[in-house]
Design brief:
The chain is mainly α. The chain is built from seven helices and no strands.
Length: about 160
């Protein structure tokens, strides 16, 4: 593998997670609804504010885990998608299902039954949306980085001889 190939692989491992987390940070910073979240007040709270507080406290660790996940899980899957592009739809459907199931599991664990089912549904959909945004941005960046590889068309082989009759 050439230096350029190693650098491209490094970019595909680091850029998508860092960009997605940067997007979340910008969204939280400039959205009036989340901008005022005080970490000390809402830490451990079973609400969206508690989730934002968790994100603000543990962001460096989450980025490190995201980069490791990108390297150990996503890149082998992406390599298979590049070889056979028809796998992309199946991979995306599985990721969507995993996002919804994981989000429901986490939302259910932190749900206080006295707050009602609407609170559970809101938390579940919020968490699923965050995860889906992350994965959509991740695969979008991978697609942009590998654009030439994904759109490479096979060239037809031509010969100077005529076919046998």
């Amino acid at each position: 593998m050439s230096i350029g190939g190693i650098f491209k692989r490094f970019i595909k491992i680091v850029l998508p997670p860092v960009f997605s987390f940067w997007s979340f940070a910008v969204f939280i910073k400039f959205t009036p609804f989340f901008h005022h979240v005080d970490v000390a007040t809402y830490a451990g709270d079973d609400s969206v504010y508690g989730l934002i507080s968790y994100y603000k406290i543990f962001a460096p660790f989450q980025i490190a885990i995201a980069i490791l996940t990108q390297w150990l899980v996503v890149m082998p899957i992406w390599d298979k998608v590049i070889v056979k592009r028809t796998r992309a739809a199946g991979v995306f459907i599985v990721i969507v299902l995993i996002c919804f199931l994981a989000a429901f599991g986490i939302a259910y664990v932190i749900w206080d039954k006295t707050t009602g089912v609407q609170h559970l549904t809101d938390t579940w959909l919020f968490m699923a949306t965050v995860q889906l945004f992350y994965w959509i941005m991740n695969f979008l960046l991978l697609t942009i980085i590998d654009w030439k590889t994904l759109n490479h068309k096979k060239t037809e082989i031509t010969t100077d001889t005529e076919p046998e009759k």
